[in-house]
Design a protein that fits this description.
Elements lengths: L7 H19 L5 E2 L7 H5 L30 H11 L6 E3 L4 H15 L14 E6 L3 H10 L2 E8 L2 E2 L1 H10 L3 E6 L13 H9 L9 E5 L16 H8 L5 E6 L11 E4 L2 H11 L8 H14 L2 H27 L5 E3 L8 E5 L4 H10 L2 E2 L17 E4 L6 H30 L2
Parallel strand pairs: 1-12, 3-4, 3-6, 6-7, 7-8
Antiparallel strand pairs: 2-9, 4-5, 8-9, 10-11, 11-13
Helix pairs in contact: 1-13, 4-5, 4-9, 7-8, 11-13, 12-13
The structure holds pyridoxal-5'-phosphate.
Pyridoxal-5'-phosphate (PLP) binds next to helix 4.
């Protein structure tokens, strides 16, 4: 039944039934977690041949002894892997440590403390701000919040951020110094930016503060669940618009090999890379080249990137199907929520009826199912509609995910019916 067409007495009955079901589940003392998009143990096993692959042969093809210090930009074979992931020339890639988030943090610090490519440091501005397409990735927002950089939420549609809104802010406010973008299989909505959006983003450099940078976090560049969606090249678009300095691209092997010990990449113009290196070389004498060599050998001797990602997809696909089946079976045509079917990435984004997300997360927690806190996908943890919940299906085994999802949909039903009942009671005075 559609929730809006239920009468008050039907809602009362419905609430009773759901509550009985819910109380029964609470007695099971579950302890399930669908909060973070971590690869499962089964996925991590796919890359276990990394261990021991060097067999004491530490020399890279270019002769570098990877055990020693040096090489700020990373091994050339590792940079080539990053170039493959980001579809850019190897010379424009720097290969770092295990986390692209760390590179993003350093890039924000570089802009904030020193400025990119000779531009004024952001800290010299009155109120430096990032544009934040929402819902988005909470850890991007945490970086800004920690450094006191302001954040403006921008609606994220099916083809990318609302570009009218982005252009208006950038044109009218010279203190806009960045935008967070997850252009392919976005975290959490799963959308991929369309060509028009990519082209309009590439033009921002013509109207923005010269220190403005697009943080192009392509974390899910090769993480397809089926046939790949083609993301237009931001690099090509910036070359056409003479705005190459306006973009910094990021990727990593975190969800390709071992999440805790992969390689992260940043790709940018030489002026931007020089600024980054200047900041980073005060902090390190070079990245873990041994691990970089391991990865390079893994993708030449054991598998190809494409073949490897197919194996990930075959593990992940049934989990996404499980989530979507639960949502469709329990909530399809109920008016209790909306969701998209992602074609890649790590998340399913669910929107409850406005005002219900916190209640759903609370009910699920009391029933032993941990969800990402409501609001986490918005700057400052503030979802003005209290509606968005990010579901991360990758980590738990399928049976646990199945149980967690039956609890989730029950909590959505219960919170929605209780809210609707309260609305009907208020309306009837
Ligand atoms: C959009 C996005 N960027 C970055 C990361 C983290 O990447 P890394 O492990 O390379 O730091 C994640 C992890 O969930 C993510 O979803």
């Amino acid at each position: 039944m559609h929730i809006e067409s239920a009468t008050s007495s039907q809602l009362v009955e419905w609430e009773k039934e759901l509550s009985v079901h819910y109380e029964r589940i609470c007695q099971h003392e579950l302890s399930l977690d669908i909060t973070r998009g971590k690869p499962s143990a089964e996925q991590l096993h796919l890359s276990d041949k990394l261990d021991g692959i060097l067999a004491t042969d530490y020399r890279a093809a270019d002769g570098t002894d990877t055990r020693n210090y040096g090489g700020m930009t990373g091994l050339s074979c590792a940079r080539a892997l990053g170039a493959d992931l980001l579809q850019v020339p190897t010379e424009e890639v720097m290969a770092g440590g295990n986390s692209s988030l760390t590179l993003m943090y350093h890039a924000v610090l570089t802009g904030y403390l020193f400025g990119f490519a000779g531009n004024v440091p952001w800290r010299a501005l009155e109120s430096p701000k990032f544009l934040c397409p929402v819902p988005g990735y909470d850890r991007h927002f945490t970086i800004c919040e920690q450094l006191g950089i302001g954040m403006l939420a921008i609606p994220l549609g099916k083809g990318g951020p609302d570009m009218e809104c982005v252009e208006k802010h950038v044109r009218e406010d010279g203190d806009i110094i960045g935008i967070w973008c997850v252009p392919k299989y976005a975290n959490p909505t799963g959308i991929t930016y369309n060509r028009e959006t990519v082209e309009r983003l590439a033009q921002l450099g013509q109207i923005a503060n010269p220190g403005f940078r697009i943080f192009w976090d392509n974390a899910y560049a090769v993480h397809d669940l089926g046939p790949s969606i083609n993301l237009a090249s931001i690099r090509a678009a910036t070359l056409e618009n003479d705005t190459v300095d306006s973009v910094l691209q990021f990727a990593s092997t975190s969800k390709v090999t071992h999440a805790g010990s992969g390689i992260a990449f940043v790709s940018a113009s030489s002026a931007n890379l020089d600024s980054l290196k200047l900041q980073m070389q005060a902090m390190t004498i070079g990245p873990d080249k041994v691990n970089q060599l391991r990865h390079s050998r893994f993708f030449t001797e054991c598998t190809t990137l494409e073949e490897h990602m197919h194996k990930h997809a075959s593990i992940l696909k049934p989990k996404f199907e499980c989530v979507l089946e639960h949502l469709q079976n329990a909530l399809g045509d109920s008016g209790m929520g909306q969701w998209e079917k992602p074609r890649g990435g790590y998340f399913v984004s669910f929107n409850t009826r406005p005002g219900c997300a916190k209640a759903v997360v609370g009910l699920a927690a009391d029933a032993g199912v941990k969800l990402t806190p409501a609001g986490a996908t918005f700057p400052y943890g503030n979802d003005p509609e209290d509606s968005n919940i990010r579901i991360a299906p990758s980590f738990p085994p399928l049976e646990e995910l199945d149980t967690a999802m039956s609890v989730f949909v029950l909590c959505v039903q219960l919170a929605s019916v209780r809210q609707r009942l309260a609305q009907c009671r208020n309306a009837s005075g």
